[in-house]
Amino acid sequence: MTASSLPGGQSARLRRLRRDYFGSPLAVLMTLLSAAVIAWIGWFLLDWGVIRATFGADGTQETCVAHGGACWSVIAVRWRVILFGIYPYEEQWRSALACVVVGVVILLSCLPRMWSFGRLALVWVLGTVIFYTLMRGGVLGLVPVNEQQWGGLPLTLFIFVATGIIGMPLAIGLALLRRSEYPVIARVTGWIIDTIRSLPLLSILFTCAIVLPFMLPGFLIGEKLYRVLFGAALFFAAYQAEIIRGGFQGIPKGQEEAAKALGLTYWHRTFRIVLPQAFRLALPATINQFVIAFMETSLIVVVGFMELLAAGNTAFKTGEWKFAYAEVYVFIAAIYFAFVFGLSRYGAYLEARMNVGHRKD
Amino acid sequence: MTGPSFLRSRAFRRVTLQAGFVAGLLLLVLAATLTARTNLATQGLTSGFDFLWKSTGWEMNFSLLPTTTADPYWWYLLMGLMNTLFMGTLGLAGASVLGLVVGLMRSGRNPAARLLGTIYIEIFRNLPLILQLFFWYAMANALPAPRASIAFGGALINARGLYLPGLMVGPGTVALAVLSGLVGLGLAIWVLTARRFNRVEPRGQRRVALLAVLAGLIGAGVFVVLGHDPADAWVTLPALQGLKIDGGFRIQPEFYALAIAITTYGAAYVGEIVRGGFKSVGRGQMEAAAALGLSSWHIFTRVRLPLAFRAMLPILINQYVWLIKATTLGIAVGFSDFFMVIASSINHSGQTFEFIGILMAGFLLINFSLAAVLNRLNRAIALKGHQTTGSA
Amino acid sequence: MSAIARTNVMDLTAPAIEITDLNKYYGTFHALRSINLTVSKGEKVVVCGPSGSGKSTMIRCINQLEEHDSGAIRVFGTQLDDNLGSIDEIRREVGMVFQQFNLFPHMTVLENCTLAPMLVRKISRAEAEATAMRYLEKVRIPDQAQKFPGQLSGGQQQRVAIARALCMQPEILLFDEPTSALDPEMIAEVLDVMVTLAQEGMTMVCVTHEMGFARKVADRVIFMDKGEIIEEAPPEEFFGQPKSDRTRLFLSQVLGH
Questions:
Q1: Where are the membrane-spanning stretches (chain B) (predicted)?
Q2: A79 half-sphere exposure, CB direction, 13 A CA radius
């Protein structure tokens, strides 16, 4: 069959396909090589993960090794440790419910009709309060559970939500100070932001966990968890402040002048005219920053918390499942991936939608 | 109107707001310092930097130059800083090369290659770095015991580490050789970017830079030859001796797990930056080059790549700074980077504040100098007459 | 005149604008050189001059979008000094229309018009919307009230900007090259609105190159160059027998083709 015997559109498409895949010796090589690698990865995953894998809670090291594939039994046996850490076993329904609450909060914040300062603040604060009540207990007949016993997915989500809820107002504050018309305030804030940004997050978390207690009066020291959260939020805020500043820079100077000429005060100009436009411009970068913040929650394992990753480590570090590290990491990776991939796809969708809107103008 | 009018004056507000802001910050710092001093005093800790000259009494598990428990803190800190820089350099280089490959695959026309590039980026970019690090480290530890080492091309790998054929030269010699190479490279960058050479013809400038790099490499070679003991063989191959490996050059699992993690993770980000850079090159430029009859290789090397590189450099600077900071994850697997040395020092000496101060100073220094060098490069290659989009 | 209670203590019998010995520097650049100008209530003044002559800077000093370095500005007897209260007060009474319209892109036309009256004058939403619709009718685009600025043509946007300024019911309107960013076919619709306003007795200071408009409505034309007022005369005299060479040169360039 020759390409010319086909109707025009189809033949052109075929020709293009043939050119892209097999247009030159190099293209042929690339195609074959890439296809081989993809096929190999695909086959390996299928073979290891499904065909030769052992499922079900009754698998042991012997049966798994005999099958030669993945040993999903470790997940079947240990999933509650991975997801909820050392939270009291009978109370783990609370952890699960708390995760659902956070999920709802995040889903709600993705709806454009929720995008006003008031509504977002309401959803996030309300969500955090419900989450905290469920996890901490001590009221409504719930057994109190100390923060040190929190672990697994809820802890990861809690750190994420708290980072956002403390970090975002901080970021707005820093960004406003950074663009202050008073040079001293703007410059000093700039130094603070730059310094925080050039330090590794780990060192900030470490400082908050270990050093901060020395510097605070007794009544302010609080749980280590909250100090570490503050560090994470501060780090998030320093980056987010620069993102918001980028948004400010995208707003024509005339916007603020027009608001001034109408007699609006600083706060009205800021919250009605400047910030809404800055956030719109900075939206893709902001979502990206949230994605990074979510991935960075896993760093608190280093200062001794049992979040998802650390809980996963304990799940296989004990004797009998020691060989099954890959299965546990794949399981955890799947959870992170679902969340991060979903959020970044959503960001890409928003960006595309905004670009379309721009073209209409 | 309410209140005395000077309270509402612009000048008054300017002074009070700025003075208040600075005073507030100073107050915060002062309060923290005073509280810290009281707390330290009650715990019987003294402040000051005398401890830097005391010996540490604990071991460092990886260093480029030899360390012993008798060495003072300052030497440990210096070695830690070198480890961070070494790991950072390896990570940056690896991530850049791999990232360029992935980015090219993603921006090419071949759909199969594009798909492979996309799979790579989506997997490595969407998982936390520390998770990837743990995975590689667990994998390294799950390798067979030394007596069942896997051999390939003269190298051995087992749960204790990766054993490469080693040059028979002392560590001091290696340090001198590396220094020589770095001096050459530094000279080359300086010649290429310094303003005072702007007048020189670009090709001459490039030739001098190449010469500087060559001189550095030759210097490195000379140091190696001089440092080599003629009685020894040039190369040692690792080999199994009883239950352990003799000869060769051992790379610990902590080290290569971290290097792999940073390289593969960084490459995913660099790949996206590379793709963005290529996307930013207008079709018109390429069409113009094609209309002039340039071959596709020349279009790529003379038009597309240089323009794309200019577009990506400012974003790459941020990414590089980020990658250097990521080396601190070494502490999670026990690689003695700067941060881990600091953390262990705090544990052993109790000189918390001094070490945190050193930590901050160290990272500020690393990041600002890296950003300064890269920004300089950015300015040097920026298109004349275009606004440079500087950053970091 | 307006239904809105005035919160200020402005003296409406004093000259609308009184500028004495005004100086302004950008660094070492002397942008305004001892400007003296009085505009009485109801007067229409057109300011023209080559670009960079300081005409925009001068009217932007009147509502303090630019801070002046020395000299005095009085608006209805209230002196603009370093006092933030006086700045707020004067901005309430002085409206401004910009070259680039500067409508708020994230708000509808109606929201653009009601925002400031509600926040600054503290009137109810219903009242603000009624006022807004009245002025949108005056600029002849009431049907666009629910649209966003990005969906309107340049001429329509500038008319909305005029309506937005009018909604604050100002005593004085400043126009900063209101037609310079418009396509030629849209200039007329904006000038028509400005002529109507002039005929209704609004106090106006217009920086513009539209000499036809100046001839038609101006009580006085002012020519500025290099930060100075060079000439100041009623339109017939200004266009008929300009005194200064620089004015003549400028007029020949603007009217020459």
A1: 73-102, 123-143, 163-192, 208-228, 255-274, 320-343, 355-374
A2: 10
In chain A, residues with a C-beta closer than 8 Å to the C-beta of B32 are 215-216
B20 within a domain of the structure (yes/no): no
Contact status of A39 with chain B (Cβ, < 8 Å):
no
> Subunits with at least 3 CB pairs below 8 A relative to chain B?
A, C
Contact C92 A254 (CB under 8 A): no
C100 in contact with chain B, both atoms CB, cutoff 8 A: no
What CATH number did the domain enclosing B274 receive? 1.10.3720.10
Q: What is the pLDDT of residues B194-232, one digit of tens each?
A: 766 666 677 777 788 888 889 988 888 888 887 777 777
**Test mutation, B2, B7, B8, B16, chain C, max C CBs within 10 A:** B8
Residue A238 has pLDDT above 90, yes or no: yes
Q: Is B296 a domain residue?
A: yes
Q: Which residue does chain B place closest to C88, by CA atoms?
A: B8
Is B224 domain-assigned? no
Domain contains B38: no
Cβ–Cβ < 8 Å for A232, A297 = yes
Does B153 have pLDDT greater than 90?
Answer: no
CB-based contact A188 B25, cutoff 8 Å: yes
Round to whole Å and give the CA distance between B176 and B55: 25
**Band of residue C191 on the pLDDT scale cut at 50, 70, 90:** very high
What ipTM describes this predicted complex? 0.88
What homologous superfamily is domain A73-87+145-354 in, according to CATH? MetI-like (1.10.3720.10)
Place of tokens 């270990």: A210
Angstrom CA distances, A161 to A141, A151, A283, stand at 25, 15, 18
Torsions phi, psi for B117 (to 5 deg): -60, -40
Q: Which domain holds residue B104?
A: 52-126+253-392
Tokens, residue A118 = 């008031």
**Chain B 104-163, residues with CB within 8 Å of chain A CB atoms:** 105, 108-113, 115-116, 119, 122-123, 126-131, 134-135, 138-139, 142
Question: Which tokens go with B212?
Answer: 């500087």
